[in-house]
TrEMBL record:
One of its GO terms (molecular function) is mRNA binding. The lineage of its organism: Eukaryota, Viridiplantae, Streptophyta, Embryophyta, Tracheophyta. Residues 104-407 form the PUM-HD domain. PANTHER family: PUMILIO HOMOLOG 15-LIKE, RNA BINDING PROTEIN PUMILIO-RELATED. It comes from Sesamum calycinum. One of its GO terms (cellular component) is cytoplasm. InterPro entries: ARM-like, ARM-type_fold, PUM-HD, Pumilio_RNA-bd_rpt. This is Pumilio8, chloroplastic. PROSITE patterns: PUM, PUM_HD.
Length: 407
């Protein structure tokens, strides 16, 4: 089947006059073009309606049937017109998913993905290089296929290629961290960065508190920040990270994504590195403990803290625990049960003398009223001899004598 614009060459339908492209374009349709052999037009990188034409030449070499094998299925001309719709290639990086003719980055992405710039991706000798993408790696990092290509280059581990990618994307790290594709490239880079490169990235990420918070609470960004925490190597880098995280710790502990960042600090940094974060948690103990995510963080803080930060944290938790319980359980019977259980415990004296337990006893005395408070005060008085000179016990005695404030 040969139309006025077609000719047979080696069993393939081809354009009779590839340079006279307008002759084939009528009323929005491409007439007389074989969608199985568009090598001439394809290689000249013409466009239809401002949209890149991206059909690969001779796909029958990849297992597709030849045009003449399809001629028995209805009118081939109609099939060609119908297939015109497939000339619109889509890209996740382009506006509304459509490749815009006036967007150089979008066109470049389309040409790269479809092989029209550097040859067919299906050609056995085709191999794109980083040099092909120079100056455009930020755009490619936000594309699914482009990002995978860049990740592959990072995984290959060639220092000059890693440096090239790093140099082009570092100033966009905050945006890429929250991109559904770009965050994976950033994670790969963080795994292979040298000390100087890591310091540069840390400084860029912590430059603005609000930006860092937005990254940490983002579903993609939180993974990238966690990866950064895993791979910082120097005390200076850890101090830089903590210096900013401490200012947004409370908000992060109560966020479903952000709390993972704080827990990652607890896991990968030392108690000394985390002391400022632990102090913030201790200062806001009750607020954090009453949040679903915050409660998990609080438990991890106790598990990982050591020395003075841990002592302070436990003291704050203990001193607030009874108040918290009683605020939740305001029912009279439950209130009485808690006070009675504390008072009748065989270890009651040890509780009164304990560095943390004495705060529980003081809190109970502050809240209890009437006969409940009188009973508890009498039980404490029984142990007067053991409490009057004890550094913690004497505080409880002071409370029984009417002190308004916890001692």
């Amino acid at each position: 089947m040969q139309g006025p614009y077609m000719q047979s060459q080696n069993n393939h339908l081809s354009l009779a006059d590839p340079e006279n492209f307008n002759a084939f374009y009528v009323n929005g349709n491409v007439n007389g073009l074989s969608d199985y052999d568009l090598g001439n037009v394809y290689n000249s990188r013409r466009s239809l309606n401002g949209v890149v034409a991206g059909y690969q030449p001779r796909p029958h070499r990849n297992g597709l049937r030849r045009p003449e094998e399809l001629l028995v299925y209805g009118n081939h001309q109609l099939n060609l017109n119908r297939n015109n719709a497939h000339f619109q290639y889509r890209s996740a990086a382009a506006t509304n998913g459509i490749i815009e003719a006036n967007d150089p980055a979008s066109l470049l992405m389309s040409e790269w993905r479809n092989g029209s710039m550097y040859g067919s991706r299906y050609h056995p000798n085709y191999s794109s290089t980083l040099e092909d993408l120079r100056g455009q790696m930020f755009f490619f990092a936000k594309d699914q296929h482009g990002c995978r290509f860049l990740q592959t280059k990072v995984e290959e581990g060639k220092p000059e290629e890693i440096h090239m990618i790093f140099s082009e994307v570092k100033d966009h790290i905050c945006e890429l961290m929250i991109n559904q594709y770009g965050n994976y490239l950033i994670q790969k880079l963080l795994e292979v960065c040298n000390e100087d490169q890591m310091t540069q990235l840390v400084l860029l990420v912590i430059d603005d508190d609000r930006t860092l918070k937005d990254i940490c609470i983002d579903m993609y960004g939180t993974r990238a920040v966690q990866k950064l925490i895993e791979h910082v190597t120097t005390a200076e880098q850890r101090a830089l990270v903590v210096s900013v995280l401490r200012r947004i710790t409370v908000a992060l502990t109560k966020d479903m994504n952000g709390h993972h960042v704080i827990q990652h600090c607890l896991k990968f940094f030392s108690s000394e590195d985390n002391k400022h974060i632990l102090n913030v948690v201790a200062d806001n103990c009750l607020d954090i403990a009453t949040d679903k995510s915050g409660c998990c963080v609080l438990q991890q803080c106790v598990a990982h803290a050591q020395g003075e930060p841990r002592d302070r944290l436990i003291a704050e938790i203990t001193s607030n625990s009874l108040i918290f319980i009683l605020n939740i359980l305001m029912d009279g019977d439950q209130f009485l049960h808690i006070i009675t259980e504390i008072s009748n415990s065989p270890n009651f004296l040890r509780v009164l003398q304990d560095p943390y337990g004495n705060y529980v006893a003081q809190s109970a005395l502050a809240i209890a009223k009437g006969t409940v408070r009188t009973t508890m005060s009498n039980l404490i008085a029984v142990h007067y001899a053991f409490l009057q000179s004890h550094p913690h016990g004497k505080r409880v005695l002071a409370r029984t004598k009417g002190s308004k404030q916890r001692v």
